[in-house]
Amino acid sequence: MKTIIIIPTYNEIDNVRPLLQEIFLYAPDTDVLIVDDNSPDGTGQLADEIHDEDPRVRVMHRTEKAGLGKAYIAGFKYAIEHGYDAAFEMDADFSHDPRYLPDFLKAIEHADLVIGSRYIPGGDTPDWSPLRRFISGGGNIYARFLLGIPVHDCTAGYRC
């Protein structure tokens, strides 16, 4: 299965190289698309250098900070246009642990959607305040019942 991991970046220069090393440790046959929003810290330039070293890394430069949602939309369009079978969403700040990528890759072979949930056994939100956990968890319960979908984490950003 041809897969790509979409990683939006803005000022993530310290995380890009270590994150890519971790990704390729656990998922060596995937490609990665860095979608950089013109980071003033040089993230985009570093991504270009890494691309020159490793053809699995692609880089999309955007001229302004247009937001996470638009970065993912641009990445999904790229994935469709380039014939990928599956596209992952992953944050650049290590909040989505690459060690779960093999589980995602195995699960997506027999599913339409795979979500890394914070609200099932093994999920966690270690850096969140109790108020943030309450609001997020409550919002997800509300969305599950309102939309009638059997998903524990409707707002998870780690998914394929």
Topology:
Blueprint: E1 3-9, H1 13-26, E2 31-36, H2 43-53, E3 57-61, H3 68-81, E4 86-89, H4 101-108, H5 130-147
Parallel strand pairs: 1-2, 1-4, 2-3
Helix pairs in contact: 1-2
What does this structure look like?
- The chain is of the alpha/beta class and 160 residues long.
- It has a domain at 3-108: Spore Coat Polysaccharide Biosynthesis Protein SpsA, Chain A (Alpha-Beta Complex).
- The protein has 5 helices and 4 strands.
- It is globular and about 45 Å long.
- The mean pLDDT is 86.
Number of strands: 4
CATH homologous superfamily title of the domain at 3-108: Spore Coat Polysaccharide Biosynthesis Protein SpsA, Chain A
Biggest β-sheet description? 4 strands, parallel
- Total of helices: 5
Query: Biggest sheet: strands side by side, in what order?
Result: 3-2-1-4
Percent helix among the residues? 40-55%
Mean pLDDT level: 86
Q: What is Rg?
A: 16 Å
Estimated share of beta-strand residues: 5-15%
Unreliable sequence segments: none
CATH class division of the domain at 3-108: Alpha Beta
Question: What are its keywords?
Answer:
160 residues, alpha/beta, Spore Coat Polysaccharide Biosynthesis Protein SpsA, Chain A, four-stranded parallel β-sheet, globular
Short description:
With 160 residues, this protein is an alpha/beta fold. The protein has helices at residues 13-26, 43-53, 68-81, 101-108, 130-147; strands at 3-9, 31-36, 57-61, 86-89.
